[in-house]
Amino acid sequence: MRLQRRAFVVTFPVRILGDRVVKIVVRLEPATGSPPDVSYRWDADTDILSAQLSSNGGGDGMSGSVGLEGTDGSWLILDVADGRINGVEVAVWPDVRNIAGFALPSNVEDAHVVVPSRTSQPNIASLEMATRLVAEADTAQQNFHFKVGSGRGTRTVRLGRDMLLDIDEKSHISGLWLLNVPPNPADQ
Questions:
Q1: Are 53 and 78 in contact, with CB atoms under 8 Å apart?
Q2: Which of 70, 87, 108, 162 is the right S-S partner for 74, CB 3.0 to 4.6 Å?
Q3: How do residues 139-160 score in pLDDT, each as one tens digit?
């Protein structure tokens, strides 16, 4: 009899207590080649924004999705294949704060980001975590910064030409940047 591998969905409700928040651990590896392009697409019937990275390569890690549920009901979903973040979907938008003088990170590292699979639970295909999500944008709403949890990034790495990730001192995801986003056709 052959055992079949099964994928599991695990939900981690995270209580926000001070700075103790979501802990999505990543591993940084040296970048090879130029960063992949980002393709944005707005869903015609909703405000869902999808951002896909072209050929992000394979790696060694988790395959599935990482869903971040904001305490306000917002949803940010990371599409992960072989440990690489291949796309992001903003399924339900948090309130976006438009900030005059919104500044992009000045120091951005090029690196491959790997979301490792958990050795204790290698068959997990989906993670869902409740946390605080804050969205900020420039006044033209072309550049967005999503702060995850406390949003304390100590370094910013490039996932793609127009997609950045904030990483804290413990290698946890603390933010996501979507740059040069085209306007939503529904708003035109």
A1: no
A2: 70
A3: 999 999 999 887 676 799 999 9
